[in-house]
TrEMBL record:
<dbReference type="GO" id="GO:0003887">
    <property type="term" value="F:DNA-directed DNA polymerase activity"/>
</dbReference>
<dbReference type="InterPro" id="IPR036768">
    <property type="entry name" value="PolIII_chi_sf"/>
</dbReference>
<dbReference type="GO" id="GO:0003677">
    <property type="term" value="F:DNA binding"/>
</dbReference>
<dbReference type="GO" id="GO:0032298">
    <property type="term" value="P:positive regulation of DNA-templated DNA replication initiation"/>
</dbReference>
<dbReference type="Pfam" id="PF04364">
    <property type="entry name" value="DNA_pol3_chi"/>
</dbReference>
<dbReference type="GO" id="GO:0006260">
    <property type="term" value="P:DNA replication"/>
</dbReference>
<dbReference type="InterPro" id="IPR007459">
    <property type="entry name" value="DNA_pol3_chi"/>
</dbReference>
<protein>
    <submittedName>
        <fullName>DNA polymerase III subunit chi</fullName>
    </submittedName>
</protein>
Length: 149
């Protein structure tokens, strides 16, 4: 069964700040790629996609993992492909990490979806709408509060 996991961002944590949230997204992306998953990082727009691609390049050498933007890189891509709402993954990916703040229409194309519930109230409401869409698409749903020591 397809699975959608919503990570809940708590106020007053590093993930509630932009840089901390980006670091957490990079951590999750690397984590799933190291497990062998073909990950698609869905950004809001081209600028955000390019920003995350650059963030992957700025990591320490021991943390580096190959990645590419949609349309770049080898024919079957790397374990991590980065795109945005106006493009599609180059080929089948098992897992999507959704950073786009919209009502997604891709739910049925992935076996596993990672999404986020931000602190800000309007963004939180949009996350609730995405949650409903995943449920309607037949996904098994779970929520995880991001724990920070």
């Amino acid at each position: 069964m397809a699975m959608a996991t919503f990570y809940i961002v708590q106020q007053d944590t590093p993930q509630a700040e932009q840089l901390g949230f980006e670091d957490y997204v990079l951590f999750l992306t690397r984590h799933f790629a190291h497990q062998g998953a073909k990950v698609y990082l869905q950004c809001h727009d081209k600028d955000q996609a390019e920003h995350y691609a650059e963030r992957f390049w700025q990591t320490e050498p021991h943390d580096f993992i190959a990645h590419n933007l949609v349309g770049e890189g080898p024919k079957y891509g790397t374990h991590i492909e980065i795109g945005h709402q106006k493009v599609k993954p180059s080929y089948h990916r098992q897992l999507i990490i959704n950073l786009a703040d919209n009502q997604t229409t891709f739910a049925q194309n992935f076996a596993e979806v990672i999404d986020f519930v931000p602190c800000e109230e309007n963004a939180k409401q949009r996350a609730r709408e995405r949650y409903k869409l995943y449920r309607q698409a037949g996904y098994q749903l779970q929520t995880i509060e991001i724990q920070y020591p």
